[in-house]
Amino acid sequence: MPRAGTGGFQESGVVEVRWDIRWAGFGGQGVIRAGEILGRAAVKQGLDSAMRPMYGPEKTGGWSRADVVISDQPIIFPLIVRPDILVAMSQDGMNRDGSSLKKDGMLLIDGELIKDIKCYPSKIYSIDATSIADSLGRRIVANIVMLGAFVKAFGIVNEDILLQTIIETFPRAAELNKTAFRLGMENVKEVKI
Predict the structure, then answer these.
(1) Contact in structure between 126 and 191 (CB atoms under 8 Å)
(2) Residue 10 maps to a domain
(3) Residue 24 to residue 89: CA distance in whole angstroms
(4) Which residues contact 33 (CB under 8 A, 6 or more apart)?
(5) CA 95, CA 84: separation in Å to the nearest integer?
(6) Cα(80)–Cα(163) distance, integer angstroms
(7) Which has more confidence, 117 or 173?
């Protein structure tokens, strides 16, 4: 069972304290949407959550970031300075945000797009999310593949609640997103460092 960002898990698997999670990539990858979905799933699970989207001035292709805080206590300070987890969906996102990761933080990368890791996490997980999304005929679901990988690697939120939140967000693409989520869970691998 994964450990919490600044504490541990209770026997029930519920977060005891606070997780600071940063999603980084570029506009058009669904980074901000993934952060929103993760935060909403946490709230449905009875946790507190805050999400802060950030992005460059470009409509697509510019930098994009979603900072998500999840806690079992009310969130007093919703800003993330040094994330417990960095989810990097592009090399630019890795370059920009890798150095912000806590010393004992964990990293989830799109292994197809990130070749140069710019930090020294305690654990690295990798999945070729973009390739998997391309194989499904819809590159835009790479963020859903990453959400599946995220829940498998780190726990934090309940897998069924997260999947239900995805389906509620995209009801017309429910089957595609179920498949993308499942493939994310099945294909994420820990990278030995």
Answers:
(1) yes
(2) no
(3) 6
(4) 143, 169
(5) 17
(6) 25
(7) 173
